[in-house]
Amino acid sequence: MNNPGASAKEKLLLQKLDSAFRSACRSTIGSELGGLEELRGFLTSTAPPPTARKSFISKKEVFLYSPQYPKKGTFLSDSECPLLPPPKFSINEIKDIDSLLTAAKENFSYCGDKHLGKNFEITSSDGIMDCGFMHQTNAAYNSQYSCYSDILLNSKYIFGCTYSAFCNFMVKSYHNYLSSRFFQSGYSHTSSDLHFCWRMEFSQECLFSMNQVNAKFMIGNIPLPREEYFPLKQKLLGEIALEIQSKKSFPTIFELAGGGAK
Amino acid sequence: MSAEAENAFSTTARLILGGPLEGIDSYGPWLMRHLGQERTCNSFFHSKKLRLILQYAFMEKIPSNRILGFDEIKEARQLSLQPANLSTLKGVVGEFAKIALFNLDMRKGEDRNNPETIGVEDTLNTYKSQDAFNSKWVSHTSYTKFAEYSFGCYRLFYSKYCINCYNCVKCTCCFECDSLKECSRAYFCHNCENVHDALFCSNAKNLRYAVCNVPVGKESYERIKAILLTYVLTELKSKKSLEQDIFNIGEK
């Protein structure tokens, strides 16, 4: 938000995404946790560092969805593709595999910030197809409103997540499908309102629960009466929100399990 | 791997490369080259060997001694925290490790004949893959959706007959390609859309019979393609690997 190098367009997008993030937090945890930029470290703590190279045309950074791209090569951004010089290639020079590979190497260029299909308001993102309102998001298809995330399919309001397919309102969650309103949860499907949960199927309203099917109003794998669950949920999520608001961080589900940083 | 699955790999190779390739396991390292690192660990309860592809960065954060096999989920389900500890965050968090066991094998819908594959939905006849959804006859892949007869691919959607293709959508008969949309018979192509019968094209749209982004006509294209495929097939048959791939073909 306070990046002096950001263009006016990018600043406007970040404002929209910040608003979307606050909305996602209200839906998911019941309160705002802070701004997108101030919680950047928290949201990206389990993500790989972004991969970037310098464009040979503008010398600006271009973002790539994978670190597999070579360190040295010809790179450019999607918007610079019309500025590519014409290929230096003569069909008559291709006699054998060596001449073919030489011609390929001379003329091949890699593109960062790739946007295929129809997209709008995308910045610092690569591998985007038919998406809108994204910043530092990679490998997304048919999705909207996302930041610091990757591998999205038909999803909206995704922040700090990896792999969300047909999901909405997910914050710092991993590998989820057909679900809504998750916080620090993973490998779940057809579920909603899960916080610090893993491998849940067809479940709703659970905290700190693992490996359940058809679970409802559960904390620590213990099913509770509805009237007992909601006050406890509000109390526990309230404490978590307060800690994140003040410290700008909270242990990940992996760290709570005894893992995390390696 | 079953004879039918071997046949699927060989058929795909014949279609794309002009000749069959036998013994898919011998091509395993080449097919997995640009997928996540493979890790083996013991399952939590029964110490069974589990094979994972660490495709996503968060997977490295999961404690390797707390991973469940698919058949152990029911046991893990029985674990719970002490009811007395539920009323405070400190109490819940303090005891959470007791039930925090991670399974990475999501199964949904029908699945049939998917040996050494974890994460499936309505999928059949896969091998050594991860997250195969609505797919069939795929092997050594990570994250495919509606894919068929594809090998060594990552994030391949609505595509068929592809080998070593990454982040591609609606592609057919492609080899060593990255970030393609609606392409066919493309070899070593990157960031292309609606490109067909193409070699070494990058950042291109709406091309046919093209080499290095230059349309060359069908006759010249077929001649050059034959040079490439002869080399590729010879290398693969003798070395079970190919030095060139889509991520180093443009390396300077």
What does this structure look like?
Chain A has about 260 residues and is α/β, with parallel strands linked by helices. Chain A is built from 5 helices and 18 strands. Chain A has helices spanning about 10-30, 40-45, 95-105, 225-245, 255, and strands at about 50-55, 60-65, 75, 110, 115, 120-125, 125-130, 130-140, 145-155, 155-160, 160-165, 170, 175, 180-185, 190-195, 205, 215-220, 220-225. In chain A, the strands form 3 sheets. In chain A, strands 5, 6, 7, 8, 9, 10, 11, 12, 13, 14, 15, 16, 17 and 18 form a 14-stranded mixed sheet that branches. A two-stranded antiparallel ribbon of chain A has the order 1-2. Chain A has a two-stranded parallel sheet with strand order 3-4. In chain A, a hairpin with a 2-residue loop joins strand 17 (about 215-220) and strand 18 (about 220-225). The longest helix of chain A is centred in the C-terminal third of the chain and has 22 residues, at about 225-245. The two termini of chain A are about 30 Å apart. With about 250 residues, chain B is α/β, with parallel strands linked by helices. Chain B has a domain at about 5-170. Chain B is about 20% helix and about 40% strand. In chain B, about 50% of the residues are buried. At the A-B interface, helix 3, strand 13, helix 4 and helix 5 of A face helix 3, helix 4, strand 4, strand 10 and strand 13 of B.
Chart the SSEs and their pairings.
The complex is a heterodimer of chains A (262) and B (252).
Chain A: H1 8-28, H2 40-43, E1 51-54, E2 61-64, E3 75-77, H3 97-107, E4 110-112, E5 115-116, E6 120-123, E7 126-129, E8 132-141, E9 144-153, E10 156-159, E11 162-165, E12 168-171, E13 174-177, E14 180-183, E15 192-195, E16 204-207, E17 216-219, E18 222-223, H4 226-247, H5 253-256
Parallel strand pairs in A: 3-4, 5-7, 6-8, 7-8, 8-9, 9-10, 9-11, 10-12, 11-13, 12-14, 14-15, 15-16, 16-17
Antiparallel strand pairs in A: 1-2, 17-18
Chain B: H1 3-17, H2 28-31, E1 37-42, E2 49-54, E3 67-68, H3 73-77, H4 89-95, E4 102-103, E5 107-112, E6 118-127, E7 130-133, E8 136-139, E9 142-151, E10 154-169, E11 172-181, E12 184-187, E13 190-199, E14 202-211, E15 214-215, H5 218-239
Parallel strand pairs in B: 3-4, 5-6, 6-7, 6-8, 7-9, 8-9, 9-10, 10-11, 11-12, 11-13, 12-13, 13-14
Antiparallel strand pairs in B: 1-2, 14-15
